[in-house]
Design brief:
Strand content: under 5%
Shape: globular
Number of helices: 10
Radius of gyration: 19 Å
Largest sheet: none
C-alpha cells in the first residue's frame, strides 16, 4: 500500500484501513452475505457515510488492495530498467502477487470470494479494468511499438496468468509455464531487432 505523506492523508488512510480490516474480520466471522454496510460501520465505529467515502460498494471492502494491485502492474511497465524487456518485468510482478495471494492467511478469503456470486462478479470486472490499465501502460511505452490489439491481448493474458496461477496446485510453476506461452505470443508481434521488446 502506498504510504501517504501529509497528516490528513495519513489519517484518512488509517481510517480506510481500519474499515477494511474490520469488514474482512466480520465477513469471515459471520459470512459475507449476512453482513451489511451498517454492520461494518458499527463494528468500525464510523458512520455509514464514512464507509462509502472510502469504498464504493460492499464488494470493494473485500478487494481493498485493488488500486495497489493495479498500480503495481502498471509500474512493472513504466518503472522497469532501461532496455529491460517487458515480459520478464511483468512475470516478476505476477510472481510476487501470486506469492502474496496464496499464503495460508489468504485461503479463507479466497473461499469466501469463491462462494459469493457477487464477489466473483466484482473480481471479474476488476480484472478487466486492470487489463485495460495495463494495456494503456504498454501502449504508452514508445520502445515497445505495438498495436493496440497486441497490447490489450498481452494485458489480458497477464491478468489471466495471475488468476490461473493463483488457483493452481503449484502456483510458482504455473507462473513459469504460463509466461513461457505469453513470451512466445509477445515475441511474434515484436518488431525484429528491438531488444526492449523481447528477452
Amino acid at each position: 500500500m502506498t504510504v501517504p505523506s501529509g497528516r490528513r492523508e495519513r489519517k484518512k488512510a488509517a481510517t480506510r484501513q481500519k474499515i477494511a480490516d474490520t469488514a474482512l474480520r466480520v465477513f469471515l466471522e459471520r459470512g459475507y452475505d449476512r453482513v451489511g454496510i451498517r454492520d461494518v460501520a458499527a463494528e468500525a465505529d464510523v458512520a455509514v457515510t464514512t464507509v462509502f467515502s472510502h469504498f464504493s460498494s460492499k464488494e470493494a471492502l473485500v478487494f481493498e488492495q485493488d488500486q495497489d494491485f493495479e498500480q503495481s502492474l502498471t509500474q512493472a511497465v513504466t518503472n522497469r530498467a532501461p532496455h529491460e524487456p517487458l515480459i520478464p518485468a511483468l512475470r516478476r510482478e505476477i510472481q510476487a502477487l501470486v506469492r502474496h495471494c496464496t499464503g495460508d492467511s489468504a485461503a479463507p478469503i479466497r473461499r469466501m470470494i469463491d462462494e459469493s456470486p457477487a464477489l466473483r462478479e466484482y473480481e471479474e470486472s476488476m480484472g478487466l479494468r486492470h487489463a485495460e490499465s495495463l494495456a494503456t501502460a504498454i501502449a504508452a511505452d514508445p520502445d515497445l511499438s505495438q498495436t493496440t490489439t497486441a497490447c490489450r491481448t498481452i494485458a489480458r493474458f497477464v491478468i489471466d496468468a495471475y488468476s490461473l496461477a493463483r488457483d493452481a496446485a503449484d502456483p510458482q510453476t504455473a507462473v513459469d509455464e504460463i509466461f513461457r506461452m505469453i513470451e512466445a505470443a509477445w515475441t511474434v508481434t515484436c518488431p525484429s531487432g528491438n531488444p526492449t521488446c523481447t528477452a
